[in-house]
Design goal:
CATH architecture of the largest domain: Up-down Bundle
CATH superfamily of the largest domain: Outer membrane efflux proteins (OEP)
Shape: elongated
Strand content: 15-25%
Order of helices and strands: HEHHEEEEHHEHHEEHHEEH
Oligomer: single chain
Number of strands: 10
Number of helices: 10
Radius of gyration: 39 Å
Distance between the termini: 49 Å
Strand order of the largest sheet: 2-3-4-5-7-8
Number of domains: 2
Helix content: 55-70%
């Protein structure tokens, strides 16, 4: 029997015999797939991405024309208003009793390049006057164009254009990296459960073997071929195996609960790991890993964003030194009349153009201080980015080396496991024939158990290193494709 299959059968011996409700044989791939959909961390990652998606949609919407229907309906005013006579300057209270209605359509467009705002509107007002001489009047503005333009100010629209698309792309990559992080956690928890179950089954198997060997040793003790010390040694081993059964059972329960939590299962649900036999024959290339990590991971984007934020802060500090210049312009046509048609005849043009400004005379270095502080922070960010890139390259080199070494380590530990298993079987046979001591048997069993545990540990490390590289690069090295996100599936 293949040694790996032997391990699988050993682990699943109790569960596979009578698989019932509340149990499931699960491969590592199945566990990863389940955790990606059911775990709390996966849910949080999806919601974080959805939030990023709608933030980006809001940014895109801000670059499109906005259309508003606005007005005042049934605005009734009955009061005394203080008015000043243009003739003699006297002040008098005048009774106001009117009903106003207004309806208009407005189109607003932000101008990314300049940071200004262009507005086009059309509206119509009706005023019903009830005080004094009752009257009705209409006021129309068929077309009015307004433009608001800050001069020499911080252009938020321009910086949003640079930052928001990158922030959205980083949100995608953050989500994919979180999924790979979940996978790494599942790999650890899955193999931890596998190892715990294997230890428990080994303890039970060893206890049964110890009982058989103890009966053989008892007969040989009477014949004088086994010493009293060797007999007691075997009896002590049996007692230790009994204790190990209880200890490993607790470890199985703890490992099961950890994995169930990651998969979103009830804590009482029993998962029976299936180790499988497949380890991909992959040799990682450092240049390829670096290329994909710089192309796909959030690392490079995060550095770009940090540099952009720092540059933006400098520009914002320069704009906030107190200098303020604003251009306001308006052009439109309007008319008033006692009837609706007359309000649209002989339209009169109206224009308003002006620049408002504010220049600080003395600010005691406040504005300059803000700029210098922002520039200093920018230099720190530049230095940090350079250091981060050096550290990242070193981290990638280590990760590639670990993976390549681990692939070879798995091959070695698999061979060692086969050798240890054959040696244990041989020593057991020799002991039954009286050609091996209890010490020989104990040593062979310890080496066999240790070799099996080492193989599981090496397989776990192999997949941990593999998915760590996937997390760094967002690249599927087995299929040779970049990891992608289906935005439509996420949002719907």
């Amino acid at each position: 029997m293949n040694i790996i299959r032997k391990i699988t059968c050993l682990v699943a011996a109790l569960g596979c015999a009578a698989l019932s409700y509340g149990q499931e044989i699960m491969t590592l791939e199945d566990a990863i797939h389940t955790a990606r959909y059911n775990s709390v961390e996966a849910l949080e990652a999806r919601q974080a991405f959805i939030s990023t998606y709608w933030a980006y949609r809001s940014y895109k919407a801000s670059r499109l024309p906005s259309v508003f229907l606005e007005g005042d309906l049934m605005h009734f005013d009955r009061s005394l208003a203080l008015l000043q006579s243009p003739e003699d300057g006297s002040l008098n209270y005048v009774s106001s009793n009117n009903l106003q209605n207004r309806l208009g359509l407005k189109v607003k467009q932000n101008i990314t390049f300049t940071g200004g705002t262009l507005t086009v509107l059309s509206d119509l007002s009706r005023i019903d006057q009830f005080a004094g001489n009752k009257s009705l009047s209409w006021y129309s503005r068929p077309i009015t164009v307004e433009y608001y333009q800050p001069l020499f100010n911080y252009n938020q629209f321009k910086w949003d254009k640079k930052i928001e698309p990158k922030a959205y792309e980083k949100g995608k990559r953050d989500y994919l990296e979180t999924m790979e992080g979940i996978t790494i956690n599942v790999v650890y928890a899955y193999h931890n459960l596998l190892l715990a179950k294997m230890n428990n089954d080994i303890s039970q198997s060893n206890y049964e073997n110890s009982g058989n060997m103890l009966r053989i040793a008892k007969e040989r003790l009477q014949l004088g071929s086994v010493t009293k010390a060797e007999y007691l040694q075997l009896e002590l081993r049996m007692l230790n195996d009994s204790i190990a059964i209880n200890e490993t059972a607790v470890q199985v329960r703890e490992a099961q609960m950890v994995l169930n939590s990651l998969l979103g299962y009830d804590e009482s649900f029993e998962i029976i790991p299936d180790i499988g036999t497949y380890l991909p024959d992959i040799q990682m290339d450092y240049d390829l890993v670096m290329e994909k990590s710089m192309e796909n991971s959030s690392f490079s984007l995060n550095n770009e964003l940090n540099l952009l934020y720092a540059e933006s802060n400098v520009e914002q500090a320069k704009a906030s030194r107190g200098y303020s210049f604003t251009l306001n312009a308006r052009f439109g046509l309007s008319q008033t009349g006692p009837t609706f048609p007359q309000a649209y005849k002989n339209l009169l043009d109206q224009e308003t153009v002006g620049i408002t400004f504010s220049i600080p005379i003395f600010d005691w270095g406040l504005g300059k201080g803000k700029v210098q502080k922002a520039k200093a922070a920018q230099e720190v960010v530049k230095a940090q980015v350079r250091q981060y890139e050096n550290d990242f390259r070193r981290q990638m080199f280590t990760a590639v080396s670990q993976f390549n070494n681990q692939r070879q380590q798995c091959l070695v530990s698999e061979k060692a496991m086969k050798v240890a298993s054959e040696r244990y079987d041989l020593t057991m046979h020799r002991f039954r024939e009286g050609n091996a001591t209890v010490t020989d048997l104990n040593m062979a069993q310890t080496e066999n158990d240790s070799a099996m545990r080492q193989y599981i540990s090496d397989v776990s490390n192999f997949w941990t290193f593999y998915y760590s590289l996937r997390q760094y690069t967002l690249y599927d090295f087995i299929n040779g494709t970049d990891l992608e996100i289906d935005v439509n599936e996420m949002i719907l």
